[in-house]
Amino acid sequence: MGDDERTPTPEExxxxxxxxxxxxxxxxxxxxxxxxxxxxxxxxxxYVAMFLDADREGMPGNVGSAVxxxxxxxxxxxxxxxxxxxxxxxxxxxxxxNARLGAAWPVAFISTxxxxxxxxxxxxxxxxxxxxxxxxxxxxxxxLFMGSGAAWGDRRQFWLGIWIAVTVSIASVVGPPYLYxxxxxxxxxxxxxxxxxxxxxxxxx
Amino acid sequence: xxxxxxxxxxxxxxxxxVVATLSAMPNRASITFPRLQKLLDMTAGNLSTHLxxxxxxxxxxxxxxxxxxxxxxxxALTPAGLAAFERYTAQIRSLIDPSGEPx
Lengths: 205, 103
Prior knowledge:
The complex is a heterodimer of chains A (205) and B (103).
Chain A: H1 10-28, H2 32-52, H3 62-87, E1 90-91, H4 92-121, H5 127-152, H6 155-174, H7 178-204
Chain B: H1 13-23, E1 30-32, H2 33-40, H3 44-56, E2 60-67, E3 70-77, H4 79-96
């Protein structure tokens, strides 16, 4: 068995424990700086693009919507690739909970698409449509963040969920086109603040 | 186990790495054998040997399931294993710094 059965000195033991903890943290746990950073950039830039491209009624034009849509798709890809990669091979009760919470996202978003489809086929128009089209998916994000944060005991994620709910409430009351600016500054800013706080936490450890 | 004696099941380089890794799993998740092997950079045979010793001591469980069509083994620390590891880390800490200051 050779080296394997060697008994380490207390200092070596401590170094081994420390190294393995770091290894697990760096390879198996989700890096919130990456996730919140991607969403902060997507919301921060995407919503500003929609605001700048909004017409007199406050509805965003094709260019603004395309920039926003592209950034959101990029953030979704980053989220899936990163979290799947880190959670790969994890099982047990935590693994099952992770998989179910992961499945809740596409289910909720597909549902919002059906609601949008129904709205458009009924011929709904005007600024009200812009408010609902923005609020519905954002509320999904807010609720799932609060639920996931509560489930994992992740206070920052829970509070970020509340922050997003507050942001989307303010943005909806303000209405287009300033709705998009509120989303960019408070929503995008909230995500970036989450990423920054996570970064400071990691440096302190 | 009496006072200062270190648990011989954990106090060996390779098994300490295994137990320290399993104790740090996010949200107490279990982990597949191949992912654990990759994380520890050990050979499959070597890891199996140590896992068997940990399993015999009641510190680790290995659960075999079928996913899709292939068998998958999940490894996890038992509550007894976690308690033993916590006792071990407390002993190591006091050996490094007998004054009781956090190491």
